[in-house]
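Researcher: Checking consistency across runs. Here is Adenylosuccinate lyase again:
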Amino acid sequence: MTSLPPQPLSPLDGRYRAAVAPLADYLSEAGLNRARVEVEVEWIITLADRSLFGTTPLGDDDKTRLRALYVDFGADEIAWLAEKEAVTRHDVKAIEYLVRDRLDSLGLSGLAELTHFACTSEDINSASYALTVHRAVERVWLPALHRVIDALAALADAHRDAPMLSRTHGQPATPTTMGKELAVFVWRLRRVAAQVEGGEYLAKFSGATGTWSAHVAAAPDVDWPEVSRGFIEGLGIGFNPVTTQIESHDWQVELYDRIRHAGGILHNLATDVWTYISLGFFAQIPVAGATGSSTMPHKINPIRFENAEANLEISAGLLQTLSQTLVTSRLQRDLTDSTTQRNIGVALGHSLLALDNLTRGLGEISLSQHVLDADLDANWEVLAEAIQTVVRAEIAAGRSEITDPYALLKDLTRGRRVGAVELAEFVDGLDIGDDAKARLRALTPAGYTGLAARVVDLA
């Protein structure tokens, strides 16, 4: 058997490339290297702006030309780095050589020794990962999450008054509305989204073991912790001043746990909507030209929700592994985080793919109110809760001598189907006031939804 031409091993870079491509700008190897160049360049500018080691601040034109190294980072730089790393066997050292080479071509070779000055690789990496993950989450993942939330919120509002039989433990239960049930997911997801939006993205910039030792040896009179803080915060990320050789990654653990939490809620949404489709509560809108089954032409399979479910599970597994691995580093540094962090894009990619499927799936369903109505009409026994609660209120008000209303309703309804006629006869025979009887006689399963429609507005 002949070998295939070079192929992507991951489906994220093959079948699903279009759905996750925006993440590659930040969380691919090239995206990471572009951020590394950005950190190296901005560090040179920071040192020069402080006139350290005989330098003078760069003019605006020189800063613009220097920043073009990362602003215009592209195919030539990617190829250059691949060739150089094949020799150096060290990715960050290759970045340093790239910056030095470009300084020479820009006529700024006098700044060469400020490249990677007093830095350990993790200074560059921690800042680069903070930048790339922050940008990927803020510019790609969160907008995709909000598209799902917006689609859900629109459906919740549209179906706020659509009565539906609840199922607790899989059994008929107090009616609700479809809108209110979808609003539950809206509220949950908005809360977690706010937590993600409020998260920190931290970097360290304190040398080989977090002590600024080389910095102090070169310039003992400089307040290096404050220089580092100003530099890192100037990049738009937070500063961690107390570290080993590496930034401790706790912010990453917090972030990935929150994204995994969001994924768990989304997984719950996917399985619930799948179940509603199975029950016939939602009909799927046919997509022109699509095939539901290779052998059963009538089928429209809920593939968007199944795909989302599976990808959320893959994402959750990877995110949990990231959290477990990144929280620990032996003594002052080990390399377990290096290869682990290269999978951040894979973890977020599967989550992003799920979000894309959910957004599409939510746009391809329509409510079958007649199915919901039939389900409600077949389960009048769910009004037993209303009846026994009204009876209790009548007892408390001194208008009834009934001693155990719960047992009374239990005997009538438990494990039995009771229709409108039977319940009306039962209500007529109750020892309660006329007003209470009138309210109960007017009650139907479809009308027993309480404040469900108003709950939608609370989400």
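Researcher: Does this match what you'd expect to see?
Model: One thing to look at in this run: The mean pLDDT is 94.
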